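Backbone description:
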Amino acid sequence: MWNYSEKVMDHFLNPRNVGEIVAADGVGEVGNIVCGDAMKLYIKLSADKQHIEQVGFQTFGCASAIASASALTEMLRGKSLVEAAALTNQDIAHYLGELPEEKMHCSVMGMEAFQAAMHDIRKKYPELNLPGSENDQAGEDRIVCQCFSISERKIKEVALHNHLTTVEQITHYCKAGGACGGCKGEIQAILDKLNGKAAAAAPPATERPAAGVPLTNLQKMRLVQETFDEVIRPGLMNDGGDAELVDIDGNTVYVRLRGRCAGCPSATQTLKHWVEAKLRERVSTALTVEEVKG
């Protein structure tokens, strides 16, 4: 049994903005009823085509899918198209007060439906020059996961927006690799490429001792600080968050989350799946991260 927040249950039992919008300016449809989840999102724009005036949805899926769609429609209403284009699936999860990791794909599906609706609007109103109009990168729309029709672009977006580093996490967030598993090797290659790009862009790190030689305390502290400054903080800041390195005691690193990360219901996931994972990858597998409140 999933442990849902009160807000998730409220949006599941009392979904907002359900139903089709006739003559919608943008319609986005994602998912497949055969696979278990499907969603259709309708967007009606204001008279000047600059703001979202009305949003409706139809969905087939679990409580998280219904709640995510309902929350998304509430978040979109009244926003300008530029503001709406900046939303991510993490914003949906934050709005609902956290989703179980195994259900994060429902928030991703909501964003996919919105992005599809925005694509429809761009085609109908090219004069609006909406964000993302020139963001198509050749080759990334190819389907990697044939079972769930997940593209390379979607896998990259989910990994970057949610700081994911493993194939298992990708599966939790967008289902890719969750059926036959034949695409898991390719998903891993995509993740390796993303990590490789980040490593290539980073300045040379403090020289490490040879394999098998333990780090001195000074080396460890320098590597932790470098990883924080060059990888962890930039990643968090891309999503409006931040973090402060408070202290290092042996193999325990004490961190205070800042910005949107502070008090976020997904703070534990951020600390483990991004901060701790990157420190273990770049410094030492013995490191653990503890959050400092306040």
In short: Residues 133-138, 198-202 have pLDDT under 50 and may be disordered. Residues 143-201 form a domain with the Arc Repressor Mutant, subunit A fold (CATH 1.10.10.1100). The chain has ten helices and eight strands. The first helix runs from residue 6 to 13.
